[in-house]
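Standup notes, protein team

Yesterday: finished cleaning the Variovorax gossypii set.
Today: Amino acid ABC transporter ATP-binding protein structure.
Blockers: none.

Input for Amino acid ABC transporter ATP-binding protein:
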Amino acid sequence: MISQDSGIALDHAVPHAVGAETVISMEKVSKWYGTMQVLADIDLKVRKGERIVICGPSGSGKSTTIRCINRLEPYQKGRIVVGGIDLGADARNVKAVRAEVGMVFQQFNLFPHLTVLENCMLAPMKVRGTGKAEAEATAMKYLSRVRIPEHARKYPAQLSGGQQQRVAIARALCMTPGIMLFDEPTSALDPEMVKEVLDTMIGLAEEGMTMLCVTHEMGFARAVADRVLFMDRGEIVEQAPPEEFFMNPKHARLRDFLGQVL
Ligand code: ADP
Ligand code: MG
């Protein structure tokens, strides 16, 4: 399960553009399912333009962490502020946060009965009240950005996994989010499709998008991440810039993990 690094070597490090402003702040966030604690005092601050990669064994709380950031999951303790909006304070804030945060899942989660174009137009029209013509123009712009405008009239099932995942990225971008969350976006893909999705994500990074990516694509982490986080048993056990993270892991659990993945 954790040996999913495709070994794709990325040929260049993607340059930095990290601002001073904190756009995601998690303070001592804890979460339980029943009596089982799945997040334990998570502290995480992400600055504008920063790219964070989260890795760790299955069940360590990676998905839960990023799902708490856009309130797909409630949490019981601590505080999360996203783009200046306090997630805990008021349920009405959830909508504002979701508009600011785009999310891409392992299973692309496209609506099967809608065309690619309609998938991309739906949220802007429903959530934002954007008119049809404008929503379509925006959708085509982002489908071009992920290099599949020619598939706009097709249905998801007519596309490859890599193409569907690029549609999912375009769909998220249509809401013009300031932050993008990725939860193992390449894990469900056949190996030959991993690179096209990683390339799309690298393109976003180059444009200065703030990104939190759960992935075991260590080549991506090396090339793109400002910081790599290792989670285990609901905690952030270690975090460091990629060189240090991979060359000089301090915690025994991280050394074991890297031994399995690399
Ligand atoms: P990861 O993404 O690192 O694999 P998750 O965040 O999905 O881990 O899960 C963390 C822990 O929470 C795991 O032990 C998992 O079994 C548990 N968990 C996740 N979702 C639920 C749920 N809906 N109900 C109960 N337990 C859950
Ligand atoms: Mg997960």
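Follow-up from PR in the comments: Strands lie at 22-33, 36-47, 51-55, 77-82, 85-86, 101-104, 179-183, 210-214, 227-232, 235-240.
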